[in-house]
């Protein structure tokens, strides 16, 4: 196995976050609370919404990026999650936690300071979300396993906000490739129509755009074909314009 010999001087994202020796530490990518001085990072949360999934969707997943520092594992590492009741407003039937989650073993480069993996937390639809503009909150904390420690205090927990209100996806940014070459300008109605009639499995993502651009193009073309078969009333946007795509 490989050991990364790096010194950790402070608990700031700008500083080196890999420990020396045989220990391993796990922590979330996002800070759930403001960083302790001298760090400057602000608290962040993961927002996910049922609004943009096909009608009738009963559950979705929140993606949480987990970091691991220290001795590089040669096999998968397992850990758990637990709910922090005082920071949670979601009901127990509105989420599901696995008995354990996996941080997958992976190759590293010589200059790599920390490993990253993504886990998914299942979120279950409840009609009450439709009457809650701010959604509900789920606060989670990492539970280490044998040979695994908890890392930076400000990143031991994750805040997930679940709503049924519209949330713009991170892959459809203004001036980005989706706007300029695929789907055109973003709107709430356009995205809803795209999901219900083209991307019915919610496949479009940053990963798809980067690693499988041909598949992203197919989804945009499928949507273009659907738009071409509709009456004007169906594809008129909120501002009165006709919904169209760039591809």
Write the layout of secondary structure elements.
Blueprint: E1 24-28, E2 46-49, E3 59-70, E4 77-83, E5 95-96, E6 101-103, E7 115-124, E8 136-143, E9 149-150, E10 157-163, H1 177-182, H2 188-197, H3 206-211, H4 213-228
Parallel strand pairs: 1-9, 2-10
Antiparallel strand pairs: 1-3, 3-7, 4-6, 4-8, 5-7, 8-10
Amino-to-carboxy terminus distance = 48 Å
N-to-C series of helices and strands:
EEEEEEEEEEHHHH
Q: Care to count the β-strands?
A: 10
Number of helices: 4
Gross geometry: globular
* Residue share in helix: 10-25%
Computed structural class: alpha+beta
CA gyration radius, whole angstroms: 21 Å
Strand order, largest beta sheet: 5-7-3-1-9
Low-confidence stretches: 1-19
Mean pLDDT: 88
Reported for the largest beta sheet, the result is:
5 strands, mixed
How would you portray this structure in words?
- The protein is α+β, with helices and mostly antiparallel strands.
- Helices cover 15% and strands 24% of the residues.
- The chain is built from four helices and ten strands.
- The strands form two sheets. It has a five-stranded mixed sheet, with no helix packed on it. A five-stranded mixed sheet has the order 2-10-8-4-6, with no helix packed on it.
- The chain is globular, with a radius of gyration of 21 Å.
- The N and C termini lie far apart (48 Å).
- The relative contact order is 0.17.
